[in-house]
Amino acid sequence: MLLSLLIFLPVLFALIVAMLPEKVIRPASLLMSLLHFALSLVLFYRFNPSSAGLQLIEKTPWLPTFGVNYFVGIDGISFWLVILSTFLTPLVVLGSWTAITEKIRSFHICLFLLSSAMIGTFLALDAILFYAFFEASLIPMYFMVGVWGGARRLYATMKFFIYTMAGSLFMLVAIIALIFMTQEQLGTMSASIPDFYKLQIPFVAGDLLNTQTILFFAFALAFAIKVPMFPVHTWLPDAHVEAPTPGSVILAAVMLKMGTYGFLRFVLPIFPLAAEYWAWLFMLLGVIGIIYGALVAMVQPDIKKLVAYSSVSHMGYVMLGIFALNIYGVTGGLYQMLNHGISTGALFLLVGMLYERTHSRQIADYGGLAKVAPIYTIAFIIVTFSSIAVPLTNGFIGEFLILLGGFEANKIFGGFAVLGVILGAVYMLWAVKRIFFGAPGKLVGGGGDTGHGGHGVHAGHGHGHAAHGSHDDHSGLDLEIGAREMFVLAPLVILIFWMGLFPSDFLNWSKASLDHLVQNRTNYQLNVEE
Amino acid sequence: MNHAILILTLLIAPLLGFAFNGLRFRSHNAYLAGSVATAASFISFLCSLALFFQLKDLPPEARHLTSRFFDWIVVGDLRVPFGFTVDQISAIMILIITGVGSLIHLFSIGYMSHDERPSKYFAYLNLFLFNMLVLVLGDNLLITFVGWEGVGLCSYLLIGFWFSDPAKAAAGMKAFVTNRIGDAGFLIGMFILFFTYGTLTYSDLLQLIPQVVESTWTGPLTLAFLFLFIGATGKSAQIPLYVWLPDAMAGPTPVSALIHAATMVTAGVYLFVRLSPALIFAPHAMEVIAWTGAATALVAATIGITQWDIKKILAYSTVSQLGYMFLAVGVGAFGAAQFHLMTHAFFKALMFLGSGSVIHAMHEEQDVRKMGGLRKYLPITHFTFVLGWLAIIGIPPFAGFFSKDEILWQAFSSPHGSKALWFVGALTAACTAFYMTRLMALTFWGKSRFGKDVHPHESPPSMTIPLMVLGLLSVIGGWVGIPHVLGAVLPGHPSNLFEGWLKPVIGHVAHHEPNVIMEWALMGVSVSLAGLGAWFAYHNYLVQPNLPKAVAAKLGPVYRAVANKYYVDEFYDRFLINPLIATSKAIWLYIDVNVIDKVTYFAGDLVSGLASFAKTVQNGKTQSYALYMALGVAIIMTFVMWRG
Amino acid sequence: MPSTETILNVGLTHYLALSAVIFSFGMIAVLMRKNVIVMLMGVELMLNAVNLSFIAFAKESGNLSGHIMVFFVMTIAAAEAGVGLALAVAIYKKFHEVNIRFFEHLRG
Question: Which pLDDT score is estimated for A447?
């Protein structure tokens, strides 16, 4: 019951939001998303980390003729991703408090439906159900970017939608092929993922046109677009730049993980031989992604685009780790997924906070921000350190393990991936330097809107004046963050250090599953624990 | 007291100081912030002392106190505990770090008293101390790496402390990025060691490494050390990554003293001394290290001759002295490297603080051309600076003499050394004497060249006391490592305590029979070279002040090349940084926008092209539709009938 | 050339042949004429041609299913005629003509 509740509670929330009066929607949504998060914490009691099998199973026939079931369950791989999704929703609600001013009701409905689809994707154990959730998540995101987005939002949404849709159609065909294969090999039609693991799919090394290779690439393409992996990444910067802050956060923090999760859930275990044979290609693309993303991020004039390209770089690490096919790489890959969710999510929130005040995302408009907004600066710099993998932040654990795994799998790729460590520091610190240090920029200090004078220009600022000192006298714009925003950032900052200092607290929950995945890769089976 | 508690206190004290000052970062009270930070540092120093004495009571072979607090990363075969070890090497290091550190903290109270944000400064300083302690205490490479990056981070924050000046912020970034290049090498070196020997813990690693000399360039040990050395060139400012250190002088002067002279920059030397029992089996790596060190020593010393900024002169001097230490590491004189690390920490910290005192007195003036004759105004600073000067140029019995002489002798006599290495080292010694004397002459001696409105004044006691303590250490600090030949003729026959202390934990290279006469002769040569250099500078800058200009003019392009730091920064800018940015812009605008997007647009255009062809069928004429329907029915009927 | 007997002895074939001829007339009317009312008349012709074959088959096989079907078809034909004429009237009211080219707004 617990898992279904986690999936469908947000749908109920969406219905409730639809009926509430406009004024109470924000607090009610915050409350409901917190409730949802609290519910997901129950998993810590119900989930047994020492087992590699699928737990908390629920199975009900859906389309029995084709062996399709409503089949959900959780294991160490999906565990943290579910928690990550539920954890971020309240932060996004709180973070969108002042960012979203129009169609508040529809926005929160979208948010909850999105949350439902994402959690469904991570928990589904039936391929058709997975596909349904995987695609369903596109729709609320489509609206989020299309309705609340920036100037070029229609272009961005179309690009985003068509890219991901095109990829997932290949996956749908491959799923259907696998279902027919279950009929041949197992006697009954089944769309359940654990049954897919039992299939022996013919594979010929060095040949492009054999069943396993074709199906492997069909799945890999769908997920690679979602990740997004070089060279199918160009939808991401556009989508991120046009998306409103909450959309960017969810997109970067959770939706991209659906791609990498797909690799761990489908691609590696179902097509072990093809995955091993083609691992070099994906490692290569991962390394190119790391370096390419970093280089392009370096020259972006727009902060949000910079963060978007840094996502390409970070997700390149994840791909490198996953296709290193050893315990370091895969563990690091999973950890990096969470890290990226936290640090990039936080970066988008931070950029959003600034954008709300100044309506500019151009790096050139800033400078010297550290002087007028010290708390904001501290938060930004901490997140930057996490993003560039400074030890004792979460980013380091992930990147270190990935590089270790990558180096074991392939010295050349591992060596080149290490360059990403340097370039990461370059693009982030250069941006930090231009935004926060130096002389006050156009929008900092004297510039900006005049005639506001003093505090409380924006709604939602009256809550906390802890951050308001005497330093903003010169400027019409108060760029320092308020109490609400600190509440949004505090959990993320705490997690950055917690995950960096005590990674075992997190990895222990996934260890059994990941060990199992790596050790029994060629003959992977998952027990379904009733 | 239990050593685990001591180690914990040692580490936690600066962290608490950081938290205290970090949380009240808006405060302007330099005295409170500084006192707390200094107290934290001093507590650490007391713990270090206690640990040192505990260690001393143990038999030499058992001198290591390890405590592991919790498992940090446990994945597969990788098991990294948050473990710290105090042994002979790290004991010396923590004493230097917390001892010199405390003095510099104390000095900073006076120095930063007029700053806008002293709390932030002291918070960073304490954070640095914590990271530095983690670096030297870590019982495995990864914990060392934690500190390694941590100190780089603090260095970044402190160099860019006055971030409103874009040049200072840029210097901070340059330092971090250059260090990151080194760190990438460190990571790869670590990976090679881990996958070859299966562990990152120092004690296990040193046991597991086969005791066989690796004669190829591509053996795992040689490669690992070469990559680790890339890390060291970043952190310890060696060729080719030394360029960040002179720029790092943008930070407050006490920071330069602590981080960029006494402690952080010596981390690379520490690492190699720590791994020296394994390093001796990788002679090729040692060769590279020795020559890089020697080259750095000489290049930096020559640049130092032409600089006019007092801190830049000291910065190049630091790079040069670090080159000496690596020269020592490369020729297998690990004890000497560690010894020079210690004495250098004393006299260089002293001189940086002294320059801080000068800059403070001159109201932020750093150009030595606008100083002169400060001896009258700053007697204590001058006196202590003289002690440091004598120490660095290697005049017996000051600290630098013993350590530098040991290095030069080993460079000559060790099986890994050579006459050429000794010659470069000796030449550097002469240059060092020259530029340091030049610094003294221009700053303290001669006539004053500053305006009437500048009234230099001696610094307050909180600043002069650290100077005096460090001055004392610069005199006596070398006495713990008196070389054997010298000890033999001195009253009481003092032995080389320092070598003896380190002996069980460092690598040893087989030595020829010591040639006593040769050693005396070389000692004489190096001291005379130093004297000659000093006299030459004295003559040039005080007796005949017009000579330098004439010499510079005569040397023309050579002088310009040296004065412009051999155009290394320009070279990096033109051939590394600018191409990188240009490439990035090109791949963004070309590959992303022109190739990938165009391909996807093409796919889209293809589909819509097909669609616009297909839509002509949909002409809106009811009768066409009816015709299609009829035709369709006819086709189906035909098909059914034909199939029977 | 079929024999006279075959021509005179009216059986199933004759009915079907007639039905086919009427159906063809109806279809030609629908496909070729521009006048909506004529087209509707063509549709009616087609429906009735089908009805004729139903009855013929029912007679041949000796059961009532064909008759039942015819009633359905007639009902639908009535309804269709009603809707169709209403449309024709609507067009006429708007354009004062009953030409099918006014129904071309569905062009893709």
Answer: 42
Minimal Cα distance from A412: which residue of B?
B188
Q: Report yes or no on whether pTM surpasses 0.90.
A: no
Instruction: Return all residues near A122 (Cβ < 8 A) that are at least 6 apart.
Output: A78, A81, A82, A85, A258, A261
DSSP H or E segment with residue A52? none
Q: Please report how many Cα atoms fall inside a 13 Å half-sphere around the Cα of residue A306, on the Cβ side.
A: 26
Say if A262 falls within a structural domain: no
Least CB-CB distance to C108: which of B615, B626, B630? B615
Å between B597 CA and nearest CA of chain C: 29
ipTM of the complex: 0.90
Confidence of residue C107 (pLDDT cuts 50, 70, 90): low
Residue B374 φ/ψ, nearest 5 degrees: -75, -10
Do C and A count as touching (3 or more CB pairs closer than 8 A)?
no
CA-based nearest residue in chain C for residue B612: C108
C-alpha to C-alpha distance for B329 and B331, rounded to whole angstroms? 6
pLDDT score of B513: 67
Instruction: Determine whether the interchain pair A504/B72 forms a contact, defined as Cβ–Cβ distance below 8 Å.
Output: yes
For residue C13, give every residue at least 6 positions away whose Cβ sits within 8 Å of its Cβ, in sequence order, or none. Answer: none
Cα of C24 to nearest chain B Cα, Å: 11
Which chains, if any, share at least 3 CB pairs under 8 A with chain B?
Answer: A, C
pLDDT of residue B1: 61
**Ramachandran bin of A366, using left for φ above 0, alpha for ψ from -120 to 50, beta for the remaining angles:** beta
- What average pLDDT values come out for chain B (644 residues) when binned by 10 residues? 86 92 85 92 94 89 86 89 90 93 92 86 93 93 93 91 88 91 93 91 88 84 93 90 89 90 91 92 92 93 89 92 93 91 92 90 85 86 91 87 88 87 91 91 85 82 90 88 77 78 84 77 86 85 77 79 81 83 84 81 85 81 85 92 83
- Measured between beta carbons, the chain C residues lying within 8 angstroms of B615 are 108
Shortest Cα distance, chain C CAs vs residue B624, angstroms: 8
How far apart CA A105 and CA A110 sit, in angstroms, is: 9
Number of domains in chain A: 1
pLDDT at residue C1 in the model: 59
The range of the structural domain enclosing residue A473 comes to 280-520
Interfacial B residues in 618-637 facing C (CB < 8 Å): 618-623, 626-627, 630
Domain boundaries, chain B: 1-69+86-137, 140-563, 573-643
Q: Per the CB < 8 Å rule, is C100 touching B623?
A: yes
Using an 8 Å CB-CB cutoff, list chain B residues near A326.
76
Measure in Å the smallest separation between the Cα of B615 and chain C Cα atoms. 6
Contact B259, B244 (CB under 8 A): no
Domain membership of residue A328 (yes or no) is yes
Largest CA-CA distance found in chain B, in angstroms, rounded: 125
Chain C residues in contact with B617 by the CB 8 A cut-off are: 108
Confirm whether A286 is domain-assigned. Answer: yes
As a residue count, chain B comes to 644
Give C-chain residues touching B630 at CB under 8 angstroms.
27, 31
Q: In chain C, what are the domains? A: 4-103 (1.10.287.3510)
**Chain B closest CA to A169's CA: distance in Å?**
15
pLDDT digits (tens, 9 = 90+) for A424-472: 999 999 999 999 988 888 877 644 433 333 333 343 333 333 344 444 4
A46 in a domain, yes or no? no
Q: How many residues are present in chain C?
A: 108
Q: Which residues of chain A, if any, have pLDDT below 70?
A: 445-477, 530
Select from C31, C101, C107 the Cβ nearest to the Cβ of B618.
Answer: C107
